[in-house]
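Contributing new records

If you add data, match the layout below exactly. Sequence lines come first and carry their own label; structure lines follow with theirs. Keep one chain per record. Anything else will be rejected by the validation script.
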Amino acid sequence: MSNAWNLKEALRTRLAAEKGTPFYRQGPARVAMVYPSPYRAGMSSLGFQWIAGLLADAGFSVERVFLPDDAEAWRTSKLKPVSMETHTALGQFPLLAFSVAYELELAGLVEVLELAGIPPLRADRTPGHPKILIGGPLTFSNPLPIGPFADAVLLGEADDTVVPAVEGFFETGRLDHIADLPGGWLPEAMGEHLPPVGRADDTHLPARSRIRSPDAELHDMFLMEGERGCHRACTFCVMRRSTNGGMRLVTPEKLLSLVPEDTPRVGLVGAAISDHPQLVGLLESLVAAGKGIGISSLRADRVALKPDIPRLLRAGGYQTLTVASDAASQRLRRTIMKGTTEAHLLACAEAAREHKYRTLKVYMMVGVPDEQDADIEELITFTRQLAAIHPTALGIAPFVPKRNTPLDGAQFAGIPVVEARLARLTAGLRGSRAEVRPTSARWAWVEHKLASAGLAGGHITLRAVHGGGTFAAWKKAFKEADDATERPWRGWEGATV
């Protein structure tokens, strides 16, 4: 039995295990919805599923393609990425619509195109190659590194624009008309001149998933937006209140009417879902219906002020109470306009203990501007207080400044600084009931460089992927780009290891 047959059989098995409303309908207007990460991540992306569903409902023949789980196995077998639905090779579609969530997924975009035999750079493609349309969460901050790969980009919310964008393509064979749509960017014609991000009409809300899969990261979960946007003003966040009009609510009645009867679990999604003023009533209804609950973006002050939230989440099967403090000390939280206080976090620890959660998880950043050793010491002392109440895990990410935020232009703290602070934190918590779960300082540095890059970031990504995709390959690619332009490279010193 051939390796090619085995790999395609794995796709058939996954498709058969899915539940919900299929995207695919046979027709001449064929669109490949491509996610540049493996299936497990892609099918947990509400935005990816939502846009695919809008296109399917508009009558297009939508098929999904993901970066293979084992890209090397596909490369060795000389297989090209194929669609889930009909096993059509990616290069045979006239239009590829990519959803890109964050900077490091640009490497996956390059890889999936090269596996398909499609030149990643727009300048290297011929009229016989598919056209490439790109959107997704990354477009809210810095889409410029996407530019060299894309024929067209939809910035921001694409609920209102993706259907006319694709309709225009099948009418003309071109994507030029996208420049006339809100958030429409044609990199070749417009260069680094970006339009404002698009905003969708509220009548489209809420986005919700069509398909549940046991192989998704959020397995067998029906995802839906309880709200979109955020009314808060945290200076590090792309989704702060100045982005697309702040927080937009969906009523519990509408949300409950959309929940499939056969779904065992409901995931409530939103940048500030715990700020929904009717969240408690919504949770009560879901628990009464016997549904498991997952939720994003719990705010510690809301958990502290509304004790029914942690109680109901636990009743819905939630096992880790997850909140965010975002900075190491109270001083820094005030600086970045994060309203969380130590009292709020202590109340969360008490709630985790009372309702017998497995763990209290606290997300935060290190390397925030003006962070000092004293801030880390304060974090150690306070985390020991939390852990004395309930087992605590610190989910730590290095601070990465993003465009379209007040902290755009802030420096990355540097890999040595971040790693030293993580080591100090780990040592300081030894012997307590707290653990440190950090993400990589090295990859955060790469993310930082792409987050502040222009169009050249796409070419740098291509060189890094061709160099093997390792951190050393990325570092070399950025250094070569700096040498070639003979200009100062902001943040280079942060890569010292």
